[in-house]
Every structure is written in structure tokens, then in C-alpha cells.
């Protein structure tokens, strides 16, 4: 595998019209079409997540390194590498991306990690779900001063999707 010399930290998120991303440790909607998009965007790339996001998954994400941040040094996550230090987790993400020749490290949630790491992200893959739901986890505001839309597709709504959605890519303005 060729080495990647300059991978970027990117976030991938699905949120409603009010930036809600979760409720009670789960997604507040069912969007199989977006889950396929999520897999395409993240496959083969290190996926960084918090403990609550890890626990919301039915199983470790196949085909990509799962890196989990927890405050509990004894926390076990079978199929993932656990970190108590944010910088160590990010460093491992960059090292794995470099070794496997991928150009992105994917931040996949949850709300606390997004808030902490958004200033360091270079690209956002945003699924804008066309609904407003109650929730307890939100994504930070995407400032037009910091981000420029690179692409937008949609509306998309497969037969099993709860709502229509748009997939938008934002790149950081430097």
C-alpha cells in the first residue's frame, strides 16, 4: 500500500434542520440510503468516535479501524482500539491513515467529540435530514466564514428512508 503523507481530519454527520444528531444514544431516524453513503465515505479509513457512539453501533464498523475515546481507562470495546487521551487517538488515526494510504481520518461522533474537534477538521460530510426532531445531541453550527460548500446532492429518499435528505460536502476556508 502506498503511504499517505498528508491525511486530513474530516467529520461525517447526519443532522436534522436544527443540528440534532441523536436521541437517547441512538439516531432519531432510519435512513438506510444514508447508511450506504456513510459506508462509502468511511470504508478503509480510521473512524474516531466517543464511547456513546461506539455503544450505539450494532457491531464494529467492518473494513475500517475503530478508535474509541473513553474517560474510563478500563473500558473494553471488542473490535476497537480504546483511548483515554484525545490526542493519542487522533495521532493513531493519522498513523493508521498514513500506513494504509488513505487521505482522510473520519470523525463519526458524538456531539462532544464534534464540538472538540470541529476546529481541526478540514472537510465535513453532512447529511441534512429534512425534518425536525427532539434530541439530546447536536452538531455545532457550521459557520459560513469557516466553511464553503463543495457539493450538494438531493433530495434523496429511498423506499425505506424515514425522511428525505441532502448530502453536502463542506471544505474549510483557509
Description:
Its EC number is 1.5.1.3. Keywords: NADP, One-carbon metabolism, Oxidoreductase. Belongs to the dihydrofolate reductase family. GO terms for molecular function: dihydrofolate reductase activity; NADP+ binding. There is one protein chain. A hairpin with an 8-residue loop joins strand 9 and strand 10. The chain has 174 residues and is of the alpha/beta class. It is globular. The protein has 4 helices and 10 strands, in the order ββαβαββαβαββββ.
In the sheet with the most strands, the strands line up as: 5-4-3-6-1-7-10-9
How many strands appear in the DSSP assignment?
10
Main sheet: strands, sense, barrel: 8 strands, mixed
Q: Rough shape?
A: globular
Backbone structural class: alpha/beta
Straight-line distance between termini: 30 Å
Query: Would you tell me the overall average pLDDT?
Result: 96
Q: Helix count?
A: 4
Give the helices and strands as they follow along the chain. Answer: EEHEHEEHEHEEEE
Strand content: 25-35%
* Helix proportion: 10-25%
Radius of gyration: 15 Å
Outline the low-pLDDT stretches. none
Secondary structure layout plus pairing:
Layout: E1 8-15, E2 20-22, H1 32-42, E3 47-50, H2 51-56, E4 66-69, E5 81-83, H3 86-100, E6 104-107, H4 111-117, E7 123-129, E8 137-138, E9 147-156, E10 165-172
Parallel strand pairs: 1-6, 1-7, 3-4, 3-6, 4-5
Antiparallel strand pairs: 2-8, 7-10, 9-10
Tag the structure with descriptive keywords.
4 helices, Dihydrofolate reductase, 174 residues, 8-stranded mixed beta sheet, NADP, NADP+ binding, oxidoreductase, two-stranded antiparallel ribbon, alpha/beta
Amino acid at each position: 500500500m502506498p503511504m499517505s503523507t498528508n491525511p486530513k481530519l474530516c467529520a461525517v454527520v447526519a443532522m436534522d434542520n436544527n443540528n440534532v444528531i441523536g436521541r437517547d444514544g441512538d439516531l432519531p431516524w432510519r435512513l438506510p440510503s444514508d447508511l450506504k453513503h456513510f459506508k462509502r465515505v468511511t470504508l478503509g479509513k480510521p473512524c474516531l468516535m466517543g464511547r456513546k457512539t461506539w455503544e450505539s453501533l450494532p457491531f464494529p464498523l467492518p473494513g475500517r479501524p475503530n478508535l474509541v475515546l473513553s474517560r474510563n481507562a478500563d473500558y473494553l470495546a471488542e473490535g476497537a482500539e480504546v483511548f483515554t487521551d484525545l490526542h493519542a487517538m487522533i495521532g493513531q488515526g493519522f498513523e493508521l491513515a498514513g500506513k494504509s494510504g488513505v487521505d482522510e481520518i473520519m470523525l463519526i461522533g458524538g456531539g462532544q467529540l464534534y464540538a472538540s474537534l470541529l476546529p481541526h477538521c478540514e472537510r465535513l460530510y453532512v447529511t441534512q435530514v429534512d425534518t425536525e426532531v427532539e434530541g439530546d445531541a447536536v452538531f455545532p453550527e457550521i459557520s459560513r466564514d469557516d466553511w464553503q460548500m463543495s457539493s450538494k446532492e438531493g433530495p434523496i429518499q429511498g423506499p425505506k428512508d424515514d425522511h428525505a435528505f441532502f448530502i453536502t460536502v463542506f471544505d474549510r476556508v483557509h
